[in-house]
Amino acid sequence: MSNKELDIAMGVRPTVPVENPDEALKATVSSSKRRQIERSEELEEVTHDAKVAEAKKKKTTAEAGTEQAAQGASSGFQVTGGVNLGTIDYQEQQRKTEAENERLRNEAQQSANSAAEENTRLKEEAHVKDLTILENSFKYEMANLTKLIAAGQANQKTLVDQFNEVKVAAETLGIANPQVAGDLTIQVQMKKLDMDFQMQMHQMTRADAESDRDFQLRIRELDDKRADRQEELRAQREKYAALSNIPATVGAAFAQGLMAGPESPASEPAPVQHKAPKGKKLTAGYGETGAVPCPTEGCTGELGVGPTARSATCAVCGLQVPINRVQKEPDQQAPEPGGDTGEGTEEVEEEAGGMR
Amino acid sequence: MKAKYAPNMLQGFLVEALAIKGVGVKELSAAVKEHLDLWAQVPELQQDRVRGMVVDLGDVEWFTPDWVIEALRHRHSALASLFQSWKPAKTWLCRQVNTIRRELDKPELV
Lengths: 356, 110
What we know:
The complex is a heterodimer of chains A (356) and B (110).
Chain A: H1 3-9, H2 21-75, H3 90-155, H4 159-173, H5 184-260, E1 274-275, E2 280-285, E3 290-293, E4 302-305, E5 311-313, E6 319-326, H6 330-333, E7 347-350
Parallel strand pairs in A: 1-6, 2-6
Antiparallel strand pairs in A: 2-7, 3-4, 5-6
Chain B: H1 2-21, H2 25-33, H3 38-41, H4 44-57, H5 65-72, H6 77-85, H7 87-103
C-alpha cells in the first residue's frame, strides 16, 4: 500500500492536488470497501477465536466436573448434568489444518523452488554478466595495449627525426644555426650515401689490391718454380752433355796426344819470365779479374789477372806486367755476367802513351 | 803405350774439357775464391773409371801443378798466366793436384 492510499485510508487529506477527482473517488471507495471486508474478516476471526477459547474453557470445565464427579462418587456424592458444547470435529479441523499446512508447504516448496530457480537463473545471469564484463574489459585493455604499442612504434624516431626535433626546438628558442641551409634530412642521407659509397670503394680497392697482390705472388711463385725447373733442366742438360761429350773429349785428347807425340808437355822449356819495360803496366779495379791480350808483339798469349794479383805473367812469352789497381766506376767494377769470359776490363797502358 | 801417351792424352782431355765448359779467368777466379774441390765435382762412377785408368797408366808422377800450367799454356794462356801470377790460384792448383793424387793412391807432393 502506498503512502497516498495509506493517507486516504487514515482519512488524511492529500496535500497534493488530485488531477482526476473521479478516479481518486473510486479509489477511495474501493479502499473503504476493502477495509470493511478486512475488518469483517478480522471480526470473524476474532469471533472464531473467542468461540474456540470458550469451547476450550467449557471442555476444561467439563473435564474438571467429571473428575470432581468421579471423586464425589468415590466419596459418596454424585452430581449429574450435561453441557452441550456443540460438535467439534477435531479430525476435520486437523485435516483442514494438515491440508492448509500441505498447501502452505507446497506453496513454500514452490516458492523455494521458484526462488532457487530464480537464484540459479540470477547466478547464471550474474556469471554471464561477469563474463561479459571480463570480456569487455579484456577487449578494452587489448585495444588500449594495441593503441599503446602502435603509439610506441610510431614514437620510435630515427636519428634524423630527433635531430629535426632538436632543430625545431632550437629554432623556437632562437638559437638555430643560420649556416645550415636546406633540409638536413636530405643532407644527412646524402652524407650517409656518400660514406657508404666511400666505404664500398675502399673495400673494393682493398679487394683489388689483395687480388693483385695474390696474383703477383702467384706469378712470382710460378716464376720461381719455372726458374728452378729451368735451372734443374740446365743442370741436367749440362750433366748429360758432359757425359755425352766424354767420348768426344777423350777422342780429342787422343788426337792431340798422338799429334803432339810422346813428349810430355811439361818437358817443353818454360818461357823465361822477364819484366815488362818501364811504363807498361795493367790498370784494373780493385777485385777485378779477367784476361787481356799480351802486349808483347807477336805473342798470342793472354794475361790472366786475378782479383788480388799485383802482376800478370804471360804463360807464352814470360812477360811480367805489373797491375795498377784503381778505383773504378761501379758499372766497370762489376762486369755483366755471361759475357766473354776470356776478356776482362783490364787495360795495358803506357805511362806516356796511354796504350789501351 | 798408354803410359807413354798418357800426359798428352790428359792434356788434350783437360784442354777440351775447359773449352767445352767455357772456363775462363773469371770462372777460375771464382773457383779459387770458393775453394772448389775439382775431384768432388767428378761423379763417383767417373771417379772409379779414372782410378781404373790410372791403374793402367801406372806412373803419374808427371801430374804436377807445373805440368798443368804447361798443358794450358797454349790453348788457355790466360788461365796459365793466372796460375803463374796469382798466388792464391797457384795454391789452389797445388791443393787440387794433391787431392787428386791422394784419391788416386799416389804420394802427395810436398
